[in-house]
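Researcher: Here's the sequence for the chain we discussed earlier.
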Amino acid sequence: MLHSVFDAFNGTTQGNAILNILNRRNVTFGDNSTMPTGAYFQWAKTTLLDIGSYPSASPNAPTIPMPATWDSFTDQDQSALVSALIAALGPRSQSMNLLAPQGRFMDSSRLYKLRIFFRMKSDSPACPPKLFWSQYSDAFKIAPWHATGNRAHPPIPLPDPTSDFVKNARPNCSFQVPGNLMSAMQGTSLSGLMKGSGGGGGLSLGWICGFNIPLITICAFFVLNIFLTLLNIIFFWLPFIKICIPFPMPSPSTPDEGTP
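Model: Thanks. This is the structure I predict for it:
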């Protein structure tokens, strides 16, 4: 984190301030030799992170000794270190563009106004149409996506997974999958994922994969219900995530007598 987040080893004023605070305390090795803590981290960064790619066939990998003990930092050291780390984050975030770009309507505190216009066709063919603008509406805000309002959203009906429905169900959504991606997915096993290995090569063909979204949603409901039940034992958050309210189902309608 000192290297990748706070950039403490780049020789800037902010980086040197962090190392100077760390150098107030020492690390002690097994042979009772000591070294300032900041200098030790600098040594570790130079030895372990600045080596670039290391040949796999080489028998000697770079190593550094681990300290046997670390000096304790005082409350004053901790306060000074936190302040130095915060000061280093400002220019670091600007140089790396860590802040995500602002999208439209993302700021829920902004106010907006609307107005409409009509394009009226002229009576004379030689004259262009005229634009008539309305007055601006009252100022309003756009609620964030996670806001919960007093108005209930209309429910999305799920199908009843009867045997007849499952028998006649067909994929109603399809994805065009490149050949390399399909080969990687088909050649990957659970044990291979645990080892970090990907799938092998295959035929260089494109694929169209269809999915039945209603059945996938039903399967996701089963999995979600299992995980929510397990997590509710620890966090007790089930009433805030899922509320199921029973309601009487209407009886099937029957045609009136005499209806053709």
